[in-house]
Amino acid sequence: MQPQVADEAAAGRHAASTSRTRRAARPHPPHQAGGPWWRSRKVKGLGYAAPTAAFVTVFFLLPLLLVGQMSLSDWPLLAGNRGGNAPENYTDITDGTLFWPAVRFTLLYTVIVTVILLGLALLLALLVQEHRPGVGFFRTVYFLPGALGLASASLLFWGLYSPTTGPLSPLLEGLGLVDEPVSFLGAPTSALLSTVFLVVWKFAGFYMLILLVGLQRIPHEVYEAARMDGADRWQIFRRITLPLLRPSLALTLLLCATGSLLAFDQFFILTKGGPDNSTVTIVQLIYREAFQRLDLGTAAALSIIVLAVLLLLNVLQFRGLRRADEP
């Protein structure tokens, strides 16, 4: 009797197992395979990306399309779109008396600021790289001007440079270095150098921080191995530090060059393009076309040209960095 009961129990278990296997093998509807469709990873990813995509579309793509339309149209600021006039806006730019001087001055300013800023930022980063007493204080002091807005810093230096109310000119007179008040912004060369000094003071600590992060990512074992092989400081800097710091240097170069080509606040506040339009930048020229000559079409065309130049510059920099990284 007992063997028969055992056989029946085994048969029942086998039938139940077969039934579960058949139910598991049945295909489920697509929307029930991983739960409801709105819980799938693809839908969640689209949900996370949707706010950013909407922001970029509303505040970048649509304005860019509008600027492109303006650049091909006769579009006064107060009258609105009067119809297409391509390529008149682009030809009017190059025929203007301020265009080529503004291009030359912007390029000169960019080269001077980029060279000085990168060199000084690298020097400061090397000085505060090691953990020594007081290093934290100097890092804070170097970075502190970067916390000030560029417009606020420009107003501050405008007051310092003033020959009547600023402290610099009376200080130089008191030291006997000059015999009369100094107009730091009254001549083209002095206006350029005074603005460069402001920008270097403002941004040197920021770029120092970027390079300092890159320096701290270099393993100490690499330096120790180089010292054991008899390398001196200059060889270590040239053969180890600079090659391993190349990504950070490329980032600072990109940011510095782009920011210098788009310079506006400092010159608008300090010099307003003077003296004799000698410090007019490309962005200042866009401002003049749009809000002084009231011609949005020409301003938009100039903006498109600047955007194309910046894109080309960034592409060339990235390609150069990629080729340098190849063995």
TrEMBL record:
Tell me yes or no: is Nucleus among this UniProt entry's keywords.
no
Per UniProt, residues of the ABC transmembrane type-1 domain are 103-317
Q: Where are the transmembrane segments?
A: 46-67, 107-128, 140-161, 191-215, 248-269, 296-316
Which SUPFAM superfamilies does this entry report, sorted A to Z? MetI-like
Region annotation (Disordered) maps to 1-38
Q: Where is the composition biased (Basic residues)?
A: 20-29
Q: Keywords in UniProt for this one? A: Cell membrane, Membrane, Transmembrane, Transmembrane helix, Transport
The UniProt entry lists the main location of this chain as membrane
Localization of this protein:
Cell membrane
Similarity comment: Belongs to the binding-protein-dependent transport system permease family.
Name recorded for this polypeptide: Sugar ABC transporter permease
Source organism of this protein record: Streptomyces flaveus
The organism's taxonomic lineage, starting at the top: Bacteria, Bacillati, Actinomycetota, Actinomycetes, Kitasatosporales
